[in-house]
Design a protein that fits this description.
The protein is mainly alpha-helical and 190 residues long. It has 6 helices and no strands.
Length: 190
């Protein structure tokens, strides 16, 4: 895999980490400013992840779910950027749904890393499950204050971003497995 492909995944992870920290540190920010900033980060993260997915579809299984996840992120980003009034009213629910969907994908993809022997696959799985739990907590309590919801959502997004960065380190394991398989050395264990 090219170095630029790894950079795309890293940028996506860093943007999500930054977004999570922003949600935790600035919960009192106006919804309009938050919607615009989140829209930009989400749109860019979706674009970077889509590029990464197309460039790595030969190496990583489940590329269809990665494409779906990327497209979902891009759509959420566009909605946040174009409809500030709508977003101000529905930002918490939309964002929580995105966190749940993205967290499910992170948990599912962790097993791809396990198959190739990446020792920290469980970090992705735990972060994925934790993101789902935090997302469900956000949906179950719609009357929660904006500060608490921003903190829950921010923590979940932060975990997703860290999960992407952990996955970036797992890419080297994938490359080694593919190279060994092509060369007939140590075929993958199922």
């Amino acid at each position: 895999m090219q170095k630029s492909d790894k950079i795309w995944l890293g940028i996506s992870g860093v943007l999500l980490v930054a977004l999570g920290i922003m949600c935790i540190c600035e919960p009192a920010a106006t919804l309009f400013a938050t919607a615009w900033t989140i829209g930009c980060f989400t749109l860019l993260s979706g674009i970077f992840k889509l590029i990464f997915t197309f460039k790595t579809q030969k190496f990583l299984p489940n590329s269809a779910s990665r494409v779906l996840s990327s497209i979902f992120e891009i759509i959420i980003g566009i909605i946040f950027l174009c409809n500030n009034l709508f977003v101000a009213a529905s930002l918490p629910v939309i964002f929580v749904i995105w966190v749940i969907v993205e967290s499910v994908f992170v948990a599912i993809h962790s097993f791809d890393f396990k198959k190739v022997g990446f020792p920290y696959w469980w970090v992705l799985f735990v972060f994925g499950l934790a993101g789902v739990v935090l997302g469900i907590l956000g949906l179950r309590n719609p009357d929660v204050s904006a500060v608490t919801l921003s903190t829950l959502i921010g923590a979940a997004i932060l975990m997703i971003g860290v999960g992407y960065l952990v996955a970036l380190f797992g890419i080297n394991r994938f490359e080694k497995q593919v190279k060994d398989f092509v060369n007939g050395v140590n075929p993958p264990v199922e």
